[in-house]
Design a protein that fits this description.
It comes from Nocardia cyriacigeorgica (strain GUH-2). Keywords: Membrane, Transmembrane, Transmembrane helix. Helices cover about 75% and strands about 0% of the residues. With about 230 residues, it is mainly alpha-helical.
Length: about 230
């Protein structure tokens, strides 16, 4: 018997709330890390060494919330996928977006694992090596954020779930993220000004998540017994 878990308005509201919660948690985490001195993408290794070898740096505390972040991201993506398919949206784009979310979850798991590793070692050379790998993975992760926004955004717009402005915003954010991923070899060699493209795209990604989540909640109120 087919599961009704993602076929009810309640499940759509859960998926929408998960998208909003995902965005709020990742923004909140950065509001803790950045004031504490977390180096920005493209920063020299010496800044990473100073941060991760400093006492009481908050990497471990922030990382405790990340399993919830990935769970919320998956719930959001699954709900968006189900809504788009039931609304007649293009399956290819929808599955592309869903895959993008899962791949960014996997990639960022590795990014966070590297941060925890840097926070537990006690020598500068280890931090230097791990930071280089961290920077590369962090930059290339923009590819998967772009896929998520293009795929779920295009499918949601064609299906009538998303307004034109939100689709356009997601497309701009995706372009910025993909450009940053492409420029990662330059960013990791010290051209940190290029990382501003990624920062702008990331902020728009957070707005897009909240907007998409609200659209799912609104769609759940249209009186459908199933989506």
């Amino acid at each position: 018997m087919q599961s009704k878990l993602l076929d009810t308005p309640t499940s759509l509201r859960i998926a929408g709330a998960a998208g909003i919660g995902f965005a709020l948690l990742i923004v909140s985490g950065n509001l803790v890390l950045v004031p504490a001195g977390m180096p920005s993408p493209g920063s020299p290794p010496d800044e990473a060494i100073d941060f991760f070898l400093s006492p009481n740096e908050p990497t471990g505390a922030v990382s405790m919330f990340l399993p919830a972040v990935w769970a919320l991201a998956t719930l959001f993506a699954a709900g968006a996928l189900a809504a788009v398919l039931r609304a007649g949206g293009p399956a290819g784009w929808a599955y592309t977006g869903f895959a993008g979310v899962l791949l960014q979850n996997a990639t960022f798991t590795a990014v966070v694992a590297l941060r925890l590793a840097m926070s537990t070692v006690d020598d500068a050379q280890s931090v230097r090596a791990l930071w280089a790998l961290h920077e590369t993975l962090f930059g290339f992760n923009g590819t998967f954020l772009a896929l998520a926004m293009v795929g779920l955004g295009a499918a949601g717009f064609v299906a009538g779930l998303l307004p034109r402005w939100l689709f356009a915003l997601g497309s701009v954010a995706a372009a910025l993220q993909f450009a940053t991923a492409t420029l990662t070899p330059l960013i990791v060699t010290g051209r940190d000004s290029l990382a501003l493209l990624g920062l702008t795209g990331w902020l728009l990604w957070a707005v897009w998540l909240c907007g998409y989540g609200l659209c799912l909640i609104r769609y759940s109120r249209r009186g459908h017994s199933s989506i």
